[in-house]
Specification:
The chain has 152 residues and is an alpha+beta fold. It has helices at residues 15-24, 67-86, 136-151; strands spanning 40-41, 44-45, 51-57, 91-94, 98-104. It has 3 helices and 5 strands.
Length: 152
């Protein structure tokens, strides 16, 4: 967490502490990090993300005649997909230049599942491969991003 009166990021451990820190800052510039501080121990992931941010920006529609209408359509399709495929209920905010879609999730750590482990794909994660220093989860997210762009 970070507030107007804090000197950088501070760790908090409860809702009560969040409220106290925000009150001390007169509720100004109170930012909460949605991700945990410690994601790994000894090179092994111990925590998956709990939160997904989807940024639908007007810059996606620069070639459109009606960019806001196109962006609204993209938002509608995104929300439909979230509802149908993962039964999620995201929060949507207009940022002035597009939409932010906030979605809390519970995701398995792929690295801990044999089906997706480095042991199952030794060539992909070998010492001479570009993915050697990556977690399986990171490689999957890169793939998902590329795959999603191809669908657009």
């Amino acid at each position: 967490m970070m507030t107007l009166t804090s000197n950088g990021l501070i760790s908090i451990n409860s809702k009560e502490e969040i409220l106290r820190r925000c009150g001390e800052a007169d509720h100004k510039e109170c930012l909460i990090n949605a991700y945990p501080e410690i994601l790994e121990i000894n090179g092994m992931l111990i925590q998956s993300s709990h939160f997904i941010l989807i940024d639908l920006d007007l810059s996606l529609c620069t070639t459109c005649v009606y960019p806001v209408r196109k962006l609204d359509y993209l938002l509608k399709q995104t929300l439909k997909q979230i509802k149908e495929e993962i039964h999620g209920q995201p929060t949507v905010l207009w940022t002035g230049n597009g939409y932010h879609v906030y979605l809390p999730v519970q995701i398995s750590i792929l690295d801990n599942e044999f089906e997706f482990s480095k042991e199952r794909f030794p060539n992909l994660f070998s010492l001479n491969n570009r993915y050697y220093d990556y977690y399986v989860s990171e490689v999957f997210m890169q793939f998902a991003e590329i795959f999603d762009r191809r669908k657009v």
